[in-house]
Every structure is written in C-alpha cells, then in structure tokens.
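User: My advisor asked me to double-check a structure prediction for DUF6604 domain-containing protein before group meeting. I don't want to rely on an old file, so could you generate it fresh from this sequence?
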Amino acid sequence: MTMTMTTPTTTESRPYLYAKYRYQISPLVYWVLQTSTALVWSLPSSHPDAPDVPLGDPHITLSNLVALSKFIGKHVAPGDVPTAILGLFLSVTVAVYDCQAALQRIATKKTHPDVENGISSLETFAEALGDCYRALGGWDWALHDHTPLDSLSRCLPLTKGNVDCLVIKEFVALDPPEASEADQDSEQETSQQAGPRLGHQRKQARPGKGKRGRRRKDKDTAKPKAKDIDKGPLPDVLSNRLLESFDVTLDQHGMTTGYIIAAYDLIKDCVEFRAYLQDLWYEVAYEGLHSAVAGALSNTALLLVQNGEDFLSVSADFPGRQAFHSVVSTVSSVLGFGAEREVTGANKGDTDLMDAKEMLLLHTYHDLLDFITDYQKNDNGKPTKRMMKEINNWNPDFDLRRATMGERLKWRRAYTINWLYDLASVLSNRLAQVTEVSAKRPGGGISRKEAQSARVLGLSSFAVLISLLATPDGKVGIRERILPHHVFQLQCIVDSLTVTKGWIHDLPKGHVFIAPPPADKFRPMRDVDLFLHGIGDARPGILTGFERLEALLRIEANLRPTSKKNPEFQETLEAVREICTQFLGKHPALGNRSRFSTTDSNALWHYSPYLCGVGLADALDAQFVAILYVWGHQMEPVMLMHLYHFLRQEGYLEKPVDLFESLQRLFPTSFFPNGEMPVSDHGNALADFLIDLENKDSRKKGKWRTLSGSGVPIHLTIPYESMLVLLREKSWNRYRVPDDHVALSSLLAKLRIAQTEHIIDHVTGKKRLKQTTLVKRAKAALVTEGLAEDLAEEKLLALADALEGVDCMQEQQAEDSHDIPPEISDCEWFDILKVDLTADVDGDHPLCGLNLAEVTWRMVNIFSCIEGELRRLRNKTYLSFCNDKGESDSGKYMYKETDARMLLVPMAMVNKDVQFFEVVAKTLAEEFTTLPDLIYWRELKLGTTGRSTSPQTTGHEATADATSASTVDKNAVHMDHCAVIKGVATEDGTMLIWN
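Assistant: Sure, here is a fresh prediction for DUF6604 domain-containing protein from the sequence you gave:
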C-alpha cells in the first residue's frame, strides 16, 4: 500500500488541508531555490537565458517559481530530477485542485466578482504547478508502474537535511554564446555578491568596447574563450532560514488564495461536523443513544474546529483574519453572496441564499451578534424592550411541521437569545453573590470553592466566553472577538434542541421536519436523572452511592485513626457529590430569573440536550476518577480481586461470582500489573502490587488529574482504560490517547494495530509489525491466553495485512485517479470513537456506566463481613495484626498499624491459611449482586456499532422542504452497513473498515 504524507494516528493532531499544503509547499520552494543557487554558481555569469530572480528571499512569486523550474529543467539531464521532488509537486497540485474543485461544486450559479478571484486563483496556482511538474520531467513518469509519490514517501519526514540531499549540484554542460568583454568584466562583480541572483545585470560598455571590439574578436576565431573567474565555494544564504518560512505568493492574489484554502478547510469541518452531530442527536432522541456519548463526541468535534482555527490565529500569513466574520466572508463570497446579506424583501424567496446562510452558520452568528449587542445596552443583564418584543413568549411545544420557514427561524432565534441570556445570568449572578460574601470577609479573598461555583458543568469555558463577549471592550470590536469555534459550538447547542424537536437541516435535501419523540421516550434530562437518582431502591444513583460510601469510610477511619488519607478521601468525594447535587441538571445561581420562567425555570438544562450531554460526560469522568483515587489508597477492592482470582484457581470457589468476574473483565490493569493475573506466588504478587501503588503515591509518580468541574487536584496511582476518561484527560484529542492506556478490546486499539508500520526482521527475514507499546501489549495478551508468541505475532500481522489490502469503494476509486490510498475521514473516526464510548458508558464494557461508589461500598462491606467471621473464629493470621482484647465488640479490634489491613491478605496467602481462604470463599459465594444491578441505566447496549440510520419521513410528516429525511449521502460508508464496504471481521465480530 502506498504511503501518503499524512499525520500518523499517534500524533497529536490530524492532517488539516492547509497544514498539509504548507508542509509540502515549503520544502518544494526550498529545493527550487537551493537547486537554482547551485545552477547559477555552476554556469558562467554571462549565461543569457537565466531569469532575473532573487534567490535569498524564502518567499517566491508564482511566476518566478515557474521560471526557475523551467530553468532547472533546461539544465538538468532527463531523469536527474529526484522523483521525490516530482512527487512533492504532484501532491501539492492535487491538493490545490481538490480545494478548487470543492469550491466549484458548492458555488452558486450567480455571478459574483469574487467567484472568479477565488476559484480562478486556485486554478491558476494548480496550472502553474503543473507547468513546473512538466518542466522538470514529470510527464516522463506517466507510463511507469509507480509514481513519484512512492519515492516521496521514502523521504519522510521532509526535514531540511532530507531536502538538502535532493538538491541537484551537477548540471548538463551547455555552450552559451560567447560573452563580451563587458560580460566578462561583470563576472567579478557577480562573484563578489553575498547572495546569488539569477540573470546578468549588464553594465554600460566602456569606451572602445563597441562594434570595433566585437569585429576584432570575430576575426580572431582561434583565440580561446576566457575562463570564468573562480567563484569560490557555493554560498548557502538560506541556511539560517526555517523550512516553514518558505512559501509561494500568488502575485497579487497570494494572500487571498492561501487564506481561501485555510478558510475553506475550517468551514468544511464546521459543515461536516454539524451534519454528523445532528445525526447523533437524532439517535439520542429517537434511538436511545446515550447523551453522554453525544456530548463527548461534540467536544471532540469542537476541538478539531479549534485546532483548524489555530492556523488562522498563529499564522503570520493571516494577521487579524481569524474572526468568524472574516472566514465566512471569504467563503461566502466564493459562494456568490455577501455574509451580511439578509433574507428579506426581494430575496425573501431565495432558497439558495437561505440554505447557503444556514450551511455557513450565518443565522446563528447573527443571533449571537445581536445578543451581545443587546446585552451591552443594559447594565442589568436583561434584554432591551425592543429585544423583549422579539423573543418573549417562546413556546417549547411550537409545531414546526405546520409553520412557515420564517416562523421557524424566528422561533429558533428566540430560543437562542433567551438561552444565551440565561447562560450569561448564571455566571454574572454567581459572581455577584461570591463578591458580596467575600467583601464581608476579613481580607476579602475568594476561596477556590467559591470561584469554582461560578461554572456551568461541561460548558464552563463557553459560559465564560459569552460573559466576556458581552462585556464591552473599547479596543476590539464585537465581530473581531467572535471566533469560528464560538459560532460552531453555539450552533451545536441550538441543533441539539431543534433536532430533538423534529427539525433537521440536511445538506442534500434541505430542511426536514418530523414528529418529535414521545415524552416518555426522550427528555433532555433522561440520562442525567438516571445517573443522579437511579431506578428505585434496587438501583441507586450516584447520590445514594456516594452517601453510603462516605458514611462507610468514616466508620473505617475509626478503625485506622492514624490514617492520613481519609481527609483527602472526604474532600474528593464531597467535591464529586457537590458537582452532582449543585451543578448537574441545575444551577443554584439562576433561581427563578430564567428567561423561560413562564414555561420552565430550569430551562438552561431542560431545553438543552447538548448541555445535558457534555455536563453528564464531565460528571461521569469525575465520579470515575474519584473512585479510582479511593481504590489507590483504600486497598480492599484490590485485595478482594486478588483473593477471588486465587480462590478460583485453587478450587476454593467452584462457581464464578458474577460481580468479581465482571470487575476482573472490566478492570484488568487496575487490579493486576499490566493486566496479567498471577499464576503462582499469589501472596508476594499482591504485596508487590500494593507496595508499588504506595511507592507511586509517596513519590508522586502516578498521574495528576484535576477533578472535572471542581478544580480539585488528585493523584492517581491505579491505571485505567476508560475511553471517555482518557479522552477527557487529553482534552478530547484522540491522537493523544496513549497506547499504554487504550483498552485492547476497543476499536481504536484494533485500528491502531492494523495501521502499525511493517518492518523486515533482519534475523529471520520475515515481515513483522513495528514493536509499538500497543503491539507489545496485544501480543502479551494473546500469549497470556495461551497462544504461542510466534502465532500471536502472525495473528496481529494478519489483522494489519487484511486492513492494508482493503480496496476502497469502486466509485471512490473512479473519482481518485491518483495512486493515493484514502484516509479514514474525521466523521468515520467519530464512528469509531462512538463505538468505544458507547461500550464505555452503556455498552458491553461499561466502565463509566458502573456505579463505582456502590461497587466500592459493597466491596468494603464484604471485607468487613470477612473480618467479622475471622474474629468469631479467632483466626490466627487476622489476630496477629489486631489489638485483640478478647471481647466480641468489633470496635475493640483495632489494627496495630495503619497499613496492617493491607498486609493481612498477602500474609494469609503466603502462610496458606486454609481457614482464612474458606471464610473468604464462603463470603464471596454469598454475593449475588450482578453487573446490571450496579449500572445507572435501564439497560446495556451490547454489540453496538457505528452510525444508525437517519430519520425517515412519510407523508404528512415531511414538508415541501425535503423529499426525504435521510441525512446521509447514498454513498456514505456506515460501520453497520458492511455490504457497501470492504472490511475485516475480527473474532469478536467487530468490523474494521477502510473507505
């Protein structure tokens, strides 16, 4: 399979179109300039056909790039131009043509002065690159079996040193016309220049050097040609320039074309990600997808938009042009309309214009702009009278199917502005309360807890942003402060409501309207309420679980009064409980001052599925991390898991216990080093693991985390494999999820293994996978399961080979005439993450969906029951660690040392205390709790894959705006529609795709 210049899956960012363009154009320009420098230094200064081009400037115009390429091609023997350089020209040309073609496809038929400026400038650039390619002999490769792209892949990465190795320094010897004496005189001046310049600058001839001189020279034909004056070593005037500084300016369109590429890439992401997320919220409302999964994927998409936006903000090429207004104005001009043109008056029926504004998020942008403008007019945080007339009396039950398009837009605009007022009020009201309280305090300081109270769980950054935007800034205008990711996130917030009300914007079909889901099937707070309150007494929620655990740990603290960890436990658990009681599903600062108070005073949450999703994702992360922190110090869960494994292996437990079997499957690396369960010497293996945890804690070698939503720092020593927690920890960047933490059962791990580089073993001569951390882990797991090491290697290699040989769809092959394998798109990566997140939250690997507080409470209780029975039997191992006073009161049996309980189980295993084992086995066998009893949700989704089908409409449900509600193109690839793709089915039924 041909390698492409794409960012590997293990890097920290994905390959953006503009980044790839800059990554390729810079070494290309550098090579042309360096080769031209070597060429001019090798030729006589009198050579007449050299273009007059400066070679010391890293910026080169397009016309000069073409001229230099032709000049090099004229003086280089056929086939001497490195094929990697030809591949670079070809790759850049393809990228520019793709961008130009995409803009051409979406451009309207209306004439607009900027359409030609935008699209034609890209076309001119691509054609000029093609001229360079031909001049350097690129067409000679047309009939070859392999292309220059194959050679390019072998030169990666494109460092300055690698490009220097490709610079040509030997050229075809040509006999130029005889140089005049004036030309020869100028050679001395040329040779003394610090930086070479192609082209001879003629000096005025000296007296006596006119026609008479030439006639004398013509007569003396036998006279040898004067030699060039020695120019010395080849100068390197570009050595101090960074490779990234080399670029092409397209004459007067230089800035415009580069900006079009960056702006188009950013808007394209916004449009594609918005469509994908609308499908997600449809699945949440109509098909039962968990809202935390949709929230996590929304955060992931937002990060990609922010990263794409960073190219505009940090690039010196686009100073002051990173605002949404600037970006969308550039793209909208290519589409044939201005960003500020309103749908009113004569153009009221212009559906092309209306759909284009919807596609470019312009309606939401104007709503945000109008909110900020209106908010700044009043000092009380309330809308102006004029705005109130427009947004008052918003009806959540408005029938969108029977309304006009104008009425729908007004309804959505009223919701957006009202919701933004509520969001701004949360922060402003809470900050006012905190400031008032702190002013009465000596010193007037604000505590961390008070500062953290001014937050909106899952959306704190956006809430702060809205407050800052609503605050007047005399130096920067409102438009310049609104960035693309601000508008994109607000659009996602608004879409989460409109989709769950039956309104979906589909790019191919237009606006689609269907009946909202039944109230008993979906509410925005559906999953939040289950998480908080559970299902009756039998299935408690997080609040009950944490109350029970905190009470039990206080009792445990009395048994070990010298423990220093209990106060830290209490702070951590209290922080999570406060998050869940105060900031998840409601906010105390809003009170009854909601703009929606006539219908719902808690509308900030009740009317925002997006906020419920991202808030619940943060809460799930917080409770998971808090309990893992407890497990790292309260060792009962770890000791019981080791005991259970030992008792099963030694035959003390004949039947498996569901609770422990489930935990053993879900948390292999949390309870056993590297997930490998010991097969002998169990006591010492447990002791070593516990000591390692203690050492990590004392030396602070574990992982520091800030508890989501609280700012409380905690130190984790227990490893984990939760996809949601790993993504949250890495700021939702999938590229940064480390190989040593990703679960081997995850689809992400399987795809990473399948994309691992193949290398040749120098000893055996066989092909094998590069030994990455993930490959080593997977191989070790297969060996542990009983597979021989060589067979484990072959199995992993077969997985990678199968994916490598997958062909893309026939239509895609026809469209792509270049020998470049297709990449997995961002939306397909979202599908992959959705599989793993669903498994993690409410699927077949529910680490985050498990009520871990309840699990910990049960396991500590089990340990207490074991101790009670050991006391009754006066077990020698147990009593050796206790201050036994011979009384039956359990309070009299206090451990001698703080860590005595941690040593109890390893000592019993080393001493082979049969009585101890029998007591533990009997207690564990009486534990009938199953995994479903400890899940927050009503049911688990087993075997979930990919995207579900999009909404279908029939008859009265569909409007004239669309003939079908399908929001997925007929050629799209679905992970659950394997018939339209080539794929590799693994043993567990997972379908690995390549499209």
